[in-house]
Design brief:
alpha+beta, 2 domains, 4-stranded antiparallel β-sheet, 8 helices, 21% strand
């Protein structure tokens, strides 16, 4: 018998799914049967760069983030996945090649895990999920394209404002060094920049 926590998590992810597709009771049960529920500790690594990505994660509580580490050990945050967000290494998940990003818990979190195999099985058993994951993929592509354009044409303050627009629930909760990494500046520069912005406001 599934735990109450697992049942609650299934209801939460079903609400996310229902924004894009409608499922009958049997389809809901098939979907939930393929999910696993896990609690993760702060800074626990769920995906390592260089290893094949076999799972997608849906955050029911807390926050995860995807990042690369350069040769100097500096983390470059690609994206955050707060509550009600999906995250995976899409390059690896789709191509079957080794992952290029790490996925780590930003805070103590709770996640639902869907394996690549179960996702493929879902396409056969409940074809509606092909549309659902296509929509999720499209949204991710739009986000990453916007990230590239923002990094090319916006200054640091404008990139921070974009961060605040996209992740309002994370403003004031993340460590400054994590936000600085996301917008592509050093923690020292970010601290001074934010002080200037607060003075102006």
């Amino acid at each position: 018998m599934k735990s109450l926590t697992h049942e609650n998590a299934c209801q939460q992810i079903l609400q996310n799914v229902h924004r894009h597709i409608t499922l009958d009771q049997n389809e809901k049960e098939i979907f939930c049967s393929k999910l696993s529920f896990r609690k993760v500790k702060n800074r626990e690594v769920l995906q390592k760069a260089g290893e094949n990505c076999m799972f997608s994660y849906f955050v029911t509580k807390g926050c995860l983030h995807g990042f690369q580490t350069d040769q100097n050990g500096f983390e470059h945050v690609l994206n955050f996945a707060p509550t009600d967000y999906w995250i995976s290494d899409l390059y690896s998940l789709i191509s079957g090649k080794p992952a290029v990003i790490n996925i780590e818990a930003t805070t103590s979190s709770e996640v639902i895990i869907l394996s690549r195999k179960d996702q493929e099985d879902l396409y056969l058993e409940v074809p509606k999920f092909e549309r659902f994951f296509r929509v999720i993929l499209e949204k991710s592509l739009v986000h990453f394209q916007q990230r590239i354009l923002d990094n090319l044409r916006l200054n640091a303050e404008e990139r921070y404002e974009r961060f605040c627009e996209k992740y309002p629930q994370l403003v004031g909760t993340l460590a400054q060094k994590q936000i600085a990494s996301y917008i592509g500046v050093t923690p020292e520069f970010f601290s001074k920049m934010r002080t200037r912005m607060l003075r102006r406001s």
